[in-house]
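Table S2 (text version). Query chain:
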Amino acid sequence: MDTGSYTGFDVSLEKPGIAWVEFNEPEQLNGMTSAKKRDLIELVTQAQMDNAVRVVVFIGTGRGFCAGDNLKGYAGEQGAGSQIPDISHGHDSGIGTYNGLRHISQALNLAIRKLDKITIAAINGVAVQTGLSLALACDFKIASEDARLGSATLRFGLLPDEGGQYLLVQHMGVARTIEFLLRKKIIMADEALSLGLINQVVPADQLRREVQDLAHELANGPQVSTRLLKRSVYQAAELSFEQACEDIAARTAISDHHPDASEGSASFREKRTPVFNEWLKDFE
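Corresponding structure-token output:
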């Protein structure tokens, strides 16, 4: 995976395989543009295919995690860090909007959701509209105590068109999602925790450390079984009980015969901490 600067964010990699994706436009509350989304899709694709990456963390700088789309930035200019040719962002017509959503905005959240590696949203500040959906597409959501989260698209007569309505329903159900969206709510982190939108609230000055500790815990876990289980859980949300049982049976046929399973059993018998991921040693 290429580290360094992309359009609107920087990427660094620390052992054991933790990729930090840090949005770097605090003066714009890290708002999204089509160029940034396309670079993020490329970055997620690289992370999927790179054995050196085990966990991906998204975090913002300044007061914002990501305050939605930066409409002023949708002027076609491409960031200096991008290696992707510029194209129209769409939204110039009905079919343009349809294409722009399917191939850029929605494609980003789908890419994050489909990533086999574990993802963490470190919500350091404002996370609204596109920023909220990106966070909800991640596996873990850890928020600073002064973070604010919401959709509020109806304030502009717009829809949560990047898949936000689906992600909200998955996190807190239909009734709460209807109220959240139709009343245009933007809420503090503690309320978001009570609604099930996030996993944990931490003091602002401890956010990076808490997320780093979680990332290390996940990165040191058995990566094959972790990724298989992640996929199976998301599948289970869409399948019948019988189909979900079939799905995890097929995945267990892989995990039970992986060296990590042998190491897990041996460490239990020997009363020691397991050392997983021998197969990844050459990529550290």
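Notes on Table S2: The longest strand covers residues 9-14. DSSP finds nine helices and eleven strands in the chain.
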